[in-house]
Amino acid sequence: MTAVEVAAVGESMVVLTPAAGVPLETADRLAVTVGGAESNVVAALAGLGHRTRWLSRVGDDPFGRMVTAHVAAAGVATDLVEVDGRARTGLYAKDPGPDGTRVHYHRAGSAATRMGPAVLDDARLAGVRILHLSGITPVLSRSCRALVEHAVCDRPVAGALISFDVNHRPGLWPARRAAPVLHRLADRADVVFVGLDEAQRLWDTRDPHAVRRLLPGPRLVVVKDGPVAATALPRADPAVRVPALPVPVVEPVGAGDAFAAGFLSGLLRGLGTAAGLRLGHLLAARTLAVAGDNAPPADRELLDTLVALPDADWARLDPATAGILPAPAQTRSSR
């Protein structure tokens, strides 16, 4: 059996979204989908042809079966997902508004909060090249924090690069409490993704190089500055900055996960840092143009063609006319 390239650990939940994009309190119809930062990443990677696996725990309930089936349908192996007969599957609701989308969580005591370090001590993880985690998991419970600490400190998946997306969720824990925990975990990882807005909120760092100085441990730190650019800062080599693409935004949730998937795909394929950043931007653009957390898989040949463009052509690239955005895309101006 061919070894899995990327495994990701974390909670995925049922997502309730007002079907017409109206505030939650006035909605008369809700779309039911599935979302989770870590499973979003491996689903996007599977769409690019990579072999991936998702590790988690769900309740023995219809929502748990829905979540697992949704992730599996994206081509992700779910054989290590545990089913808990004593806890329910979590869910969250999106609440669109003029200042952005708020998220209301209903996940306290969910099955996934009962995960612990033993999740990673499985022989079936042998040969995994990248283990992806996020800063959402350590806030879910003490055992979940112990799981992430086990991953980054004890390295139970031998030979795997540890990829860590800071992914601070203010609705789950305030910055003052999250800052030292997320700093410690990020600095123990190999590849770190962090938004510049997150870094400012957590650590009062205001430029990518300041973030790199704050995190000297990782081999590579990738700082995302929203619609402006993304900068990769290796430990020794010069920083690489790639401008973002102009994209009309339907829904921002999930775009960071898509970016991480694109960059990790470039890393797995040895495409180089700049190409990885470009691939991240392309996948993020697709996700920004849809209402859900995941965009349909893109044509890999088209992606590779766009990634290889000369710098001047990349700077002029319009994702809509390049055929990179899912169709039809009902878009509104970026918030």
UniProtKB/TrEMBL annotation:
Gene Ontology terms for molecular function: kinase activity
Top-level division of the source organism's lineage: Bacteria
Transmembrane regions: none
Pfam families referenced in this protein's UniProt entry, alphabetically: PfkB
Signal peptide positions (record): none
Location of the Carbohydrate kinase PfkB domain: 6-296
Keywords of the record: Kinase, Transferase
CDD domains hit by this protein: KdgK
Family of this protein: Belongs to the carbohydrate kinase PfkB family.
Name this polypeptide is given: 2-dehydro-3-deoxygluconokinase
Organism of origin: Micromonospora nigra
